[in-house]
Structure to design on (657 residues):
């Protein structure tokens, strides 16, 4: 195992040194594609630049905003040995919707309470082996780089993986959300959200028992949903040329299964499909990898809980592809509490042609309280992944 | 179609020859570092020693640019410009009470961002309780002038800390609401409420769809009026109350909870 690890590390180091050396050689630059400019639209205090052991690199700016919390902007990924590539213009949260099982209350945390205006102050003990970044008012963003276990294993060959984690926490009422974005050294992006703090509602009459779980004598923790809406504005490669596609797989009742793809040229609302393995991708239609395949990022949902009702139209679908519009900020309560245009994400889908796709994706968790949630509630986590698909012609760390 | 190629192509052998010594050196260092890290943390454990981390000077050392949030000096300047704007003063003149809701960097459009550089601008949002209007001012910090003033009804951004405190004071001054709070405190803590200052106050700006069972005309007017749904706690334990305060009219419009 040690030999295998040494070999892998040597290969990684060689690749890294080679990349460094090539960059300094006369003539080498002409063999490389034009490098998209790195983000320069923020000062060093608000930029994150990480080069991993395997030579991969992430560059981005971050900003804390009063409603959205931390948003990540102008993200560039550099696969080991490849040119830097722009990946996204903005990634962040678009709403946290928290309806309780009795039907009330129904909170819209981002628009009605504010995430960024309620960030908690972090100290070094919160951010073990990392560093805490300051938004100008408080220390509130933890930056960590951590091992992510095996990258691959085959025969005598294996490699380890690393990731950059950036997280902040906001106290919304009695809840503390931990909003983390992991940027992996293989280009994968993993939004993660955790909920901790204290139970917000504990009922004391047996009439409420049907909506909760007993957590003490005559005490029922009220069950509820956390629906996180993410707003994902990818902009792959050079400006423009992005398109959204939906993929699914099915057959006619036999054993065979085939692929179906749809280009979402007009704004679309879609549902997760556990039976048809549905996923989406943002593709740059003008840039290909060395195999001639258009570069793209896959939006790979984690199929979990679904919460639907006719009264709240944003619950009727799980993924919304809209054309970029500056007034579309909050997935719910957008006009009434975010000052935007359109009531909610379901209304954003209004037949517009998609030339600059923005993806809104919901992740839902049903929290049934348990005795262990008191006094301090253990974090419960939800996440999904955004994978590079054909960004490079082969695994850049073979 | 533009094509992306692996970086190592024509210059490959050139680089191999010249880079062998460097490769060996870097590999040795990398092995040593990797072994240290492996001993330190398994999957999921942090080991920052393995990566190059760009220095991150604390804000204030460098001038704010681009996406950077506003500095406190920029916020102060933006507020001053907004308050001195004639259009703002004219609208505010009709309000008996107002609140500065937020001052933060103005979110430009992507068209502006695509230029690569843009003016530092701020959003300054006020709420006027009398006419129930939100005023959003876009302040250009380069020109020290208001680029735009938007006055809008039925726009309710989140509450300020001051508004949460005022909502609590109004609730404690209301016989029914104060009774609910005192009763909830007794049930949760096991003794009578002696000092209201012991109660932590949070609040959602209230829209009627947040508490569907509250259907009185006064409650349904929230959204047009500015209302607060209080979340009250003692040392983190939330009191079982559902109290909605109409900040525009200075009174409690719903007092539930303490079941």
């Amino acid at each position: 195992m040690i030999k295998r690890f040494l070999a892998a590390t040597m290969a990684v180091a060689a690749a890294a040194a080679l990349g460094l050396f090539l960059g300094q050689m006369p003539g080498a630059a002409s063999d490389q594609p034009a490098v998209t400019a790195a983000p320069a639209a923020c000062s060093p205090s608000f930029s994150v630049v990480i080069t991993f052991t395997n030579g991969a690199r992430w560059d981005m700016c971050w900003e804390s905003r009063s409603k959205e919390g931390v948003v990540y902007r102008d993200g560039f990924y550099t696969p080991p040995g490849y040119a830097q590539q722009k990946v996204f213009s903005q990634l962040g949260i678009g709403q946290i919707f928290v309806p309780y099982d009795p039907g009330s209350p129904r909170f819209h945390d981002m628009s009605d309470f504010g995430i960024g205006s309620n960030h908690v102050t972090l100290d070094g003990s919160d951010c073990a082996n990392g560093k805490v970044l300051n938004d100008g008012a408080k220390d509130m963003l933890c930056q960590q780089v951590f091992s992510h276990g095996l990258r691959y294993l085959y025969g005598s060959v294996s490699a380890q993986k690393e990731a950059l984690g950036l997280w902040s926490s906001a106290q919304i009422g009695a809840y503390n959300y931990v909003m983390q974005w992991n940027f992996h050294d293989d280009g994968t992006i993993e939004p993660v959200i955790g909920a901790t703090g204290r139970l917000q509602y504990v009922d004391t009459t047996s009439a409420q028992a049907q909506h909760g779980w007993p957590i003490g004598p005559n005490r029922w923790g009220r069950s509820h949903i956390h629906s996180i809406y993410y707003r994902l504005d990818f902009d792959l490669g050079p400006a423009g040329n992005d398109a959204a596609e939906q993929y699914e797989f099915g057959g006619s009742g036999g054993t065979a299964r085939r692929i179906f793809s749809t280009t979402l040229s007009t704004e679309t609302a879609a549902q997760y499909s556990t039976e048809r393995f549905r996923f989406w991708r943002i593709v740059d239609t003008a840039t290909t990898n060395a195999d001639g395949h258009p570069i793209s990022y896959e939006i790979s949902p984690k199929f979990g809980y679904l919460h639907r009702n006719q009264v709240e139209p944003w619950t009727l679908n799980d993924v919304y592809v809209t054309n970029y519009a500056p007034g579309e900020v909050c997935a719910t309560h957008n006009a009434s509490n975010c000052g935007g245009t359109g009531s909610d994400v379901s209304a954003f889908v209004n037949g517009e042609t998609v030339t600059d796709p923005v993806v809104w994706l919901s992740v839902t968790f049903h929290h049934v309280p348990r005795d262990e949630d008191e006094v301090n509630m253990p974090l419960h986590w939800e996440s999904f992944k955004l994978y590079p698909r054909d960004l490079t012609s082969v695994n850049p760390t073979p | 179609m533009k094509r992306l190629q692996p970086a190592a192509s024509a210059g490959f052998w050139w680089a191999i020859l010249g880079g062998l010594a460097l490769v060996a050196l870097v590999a040795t260092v990398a092995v040593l570092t990797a072994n240290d890290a492996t001993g330190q943390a398994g999957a999921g454990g942090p080991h920052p020693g393995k990566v190059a981390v760009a220095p991150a000077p604390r804000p204030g050392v460098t001038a704010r640019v681009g996406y950077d949030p506003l500095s406190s000096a920029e916020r102060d300047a933006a507020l001053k410009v907004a308050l001195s704007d004639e259009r703002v003063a004219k609208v505010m003149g009709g309000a008996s009470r107002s609140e500065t809701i937020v001052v933060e960097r103005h979110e430009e459009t992507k068209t502006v961002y695509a230029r690569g550089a843009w003016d530092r601008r701020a959003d300054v949002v006020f709420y006027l309780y009398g006419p129930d209007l939100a005023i959003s001012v876009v302040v250009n910090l380069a020109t020290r002038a208001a680029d735009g003033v938007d006055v809008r009804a039925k726009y309710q951004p989140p509450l300020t800390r001051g508004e949460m405190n005022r909502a609590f004071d109004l609730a404690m001054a209301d016989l029914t609401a104060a009774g609910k709070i005192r009763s909830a405190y007794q049930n949760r803590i096991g003794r009578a409420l002696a000092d209201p200052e012991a109660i932590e106050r949070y609040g959602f700006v209230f829209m009627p769809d947040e508490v569907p069972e509250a259907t009185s005309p006064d409650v349904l007017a929230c959204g047009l009026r500015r209302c607060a749904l209080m979340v009250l706690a003692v040392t983190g334990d939330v009191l079982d109350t559902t109290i909605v305060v109409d900040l525009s009219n200075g009174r409690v419009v719903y007092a539930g909870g303490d079941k």
In short: The longest helix of chain B spans residues 12-40. Helices of chain B lie at 12-40, 72-84, 86-92, 110-113, 161-172, 175-189, 217-220.
